[in-house]
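FW: tagging you since you asked about this chain on Friday. Here's the raw sequence from the shared folder, copied in full. Didn't touch anything.
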Amino acid sequence: MPTALADGLGGGVECGHFICEVEADDPGQAGSGAHDNTGNKPEGSGTSSSPWTCTYKLMSPQPPTGSLDWEGHKPGDGAVYTQTCHYLDSPDSVVRRQWLANPPPQAATVDPAVLAQRAVDSMKLAGPDIASPRPTGKYLVGMPMWMWVNQSPTTYGPNTASASAGGVSVTATAKVSKIVWQTGDGTAVTCTGPGTPYTAAAGKSDSPTCGHTYTRTSTGQPEGRYQITATSTWTINWQVTSGGGAQAGQLTETRQSQVSAPLTELQVLN
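HL: got it, structure written out here
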């Protein structure tokens, strides 16, 4: 079986623009090193990390004496491997023969949960897209306030992304499972859905899914408005889709958005 070396997961691989090389205490022991297609060693091909993932397979039989693959060494002095490198999740690969003084180190086991987190990070999840209450709205003490959010892949879900490394691929799907509204008057309202948009036909009735009724005006609050914070909890289910067996798990992340709204009393005219 080839030896897999995954960048960022302890694989010990350094790569340039196109190809990779194994780290060595003595740089001279790693052969000619990484080069781009001009024959020049690319910038940054020292000891910095790289988004490449490489595998090494011992050539059998080994190249004959005098082959350029030995890079000036004699057969038996180290060995020649077939090196295959992938950039990030690209299906394309770069293959070459690589002489190594010592067998490449075994790669650290790829943790699917780490790949799941990488997939989640690529989703760019955001806080709730608050549709109501509106900053420009006018709200009355004692009148039900309906609270709801707009839905999109980044603000509510579902949102799906994948990540791969070391021959393991993971797919994660994220969706908001609840939103907790801190209404600014000391109340917290937990809603398990996006809320129900208000219509005039509802009149003075309470929201059937997500709402709050204020009992005090916002006089005395900063700028005379209640500061409202909506915190969404994202539940992320992930599973290995290839290379890592039947593994699955769940992650949780939270995001916040804020809005402010004035609460006044109904003025009765005589």
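FW: The longest strand covers residues 226-242.
HL: agreed, and The chain has two domains: 3-100, 112-264.
FW: great, closing this out.
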